[in-house]
Design a protein that fits this description.
The complex is a heterodimer of chains A (115) and B (114).
Chain A: E1 3-5, E2 10-14, E3 19-21, E4 24-26, E5 32-39, E6 46-52, E7 59-61, E8 64-69, E9 74-79, E10 88-96, E11 104-105, E12 109-114
Parallel strand pairs in A: 2-12
Antiparallel strand pairs in A: 1-4, 3-9, 5-6, 5-10, 7-8, 8-9, 10-11, 10-12
Chain B: E1 4-7, E2 10-13, E3 19-25, E4 32-38, E5 44-51, E6 57-58, E7 67-73, E8 76-81, E9 90-97, E10 103-105, E11 109-113
The chains are: A mainly beta (115), B mainly beta (114).
Chain lengths: 115, 114
């Protein structure tokens, strides 16, 4: 079975705090892709990152960083020095059989950054 | 990445009417497009995979006769909600498999059935 779990339903932080969003996935496939998407109140899904199962190298993009650990089946997302504009729902997703195959989404984490 | 548009962005209709939603890939020829549905404060659930020139593939539990999908060209897929009912009210969002093996999403269509 393939599944994505985002245990944190809602997180509230004060601006400039660091925050980590957790994502745990399940799959029996050896080739898979993991994604993070941001969904602001307007509703559109904004692509943040894609990582394939053979690349465990962590990535940093500005204030965003991602920690991929196959040993724990986790793909966590950290926002450093959070800003009000980071307030959104963040989804972690899994694709197998090719990254453009259907996506299995987690339930999402609502991040509220207070000024 | 791919640029995807959807039309309309929102629609209100009476129960029993049919509603057509368009998904366009503006800068990428998409042989495959995906249709998702998102109920308020819930996650996205795949409804169907739209294949250019052939029949769509529906996920389990999705009525193919109610949610008609047409993918007549490499840049356009349409989803028609037939005989819509209030329980069909939702946020419908399409995606395109763009470059670098990533799905890019349209802005979504909010459907409210009265």
């Amino acid at each position: 079975a393939q599944k994505v779990t985002q245990a944190q339903t809602e997180i509230s932080v004060v601006e400039k705090e660091d925050v980590t969003l957790d994502c745990v996935y399940e799959t029996r496939d050896t080739t898979y892709y993991l994604f993070w998407y941001k969904q602001p109140p307007s509703g559109e899904l904004v692509f943040l990152i894609r990582r394939n199962s053979f690349d465990e190298q962590n990535e940093i993009s500005g204030r965003y960083s991602w920690n991929f650990q196959k040993s724990t089946s986790s793909f966590n997302f950290t926002i450093t020095a959070s800003q009000v504009v980071d307030s959104a729902v963040y989804f972690c997703a899994l694709a197998t059989g090719g990254a453009t195959n259907k996506l299995i989404f987690g339930t999402g984490t609502l991040l509220a950054v207070q000024p | 990445g791919a640029v995807v548009s959807q039309h309309p962005s929102w629609v209100i209709c009476k129960s029993g009417t049919s509603v057509k939603i368009e998904c366009r890939s503006l800068d990428f020829q998409a042989t495959t497009m995906f249709w998702y549905r998102q109920f308020p404060k819930q996650s996205l659930m795949l409804m169907a995979t739209s294949n250019e020139g052939s029949k769509a593939t529906y996920e389990q539990g999705v009525e193919k006769d109610k949610f008609l999908i047409n993918h007549a060209s490499l840049t356009l897929s349409t989803l028609t909600v037939t005989s819509a009912h209030p329980e069909d009210s939702s946020f419908y969002i399409c995606s395109v498999g763009g470059n670098q093996e990533t799905q890019y999403f349209g802005p979504g269509t909010r459907l409210l059935v009265l």
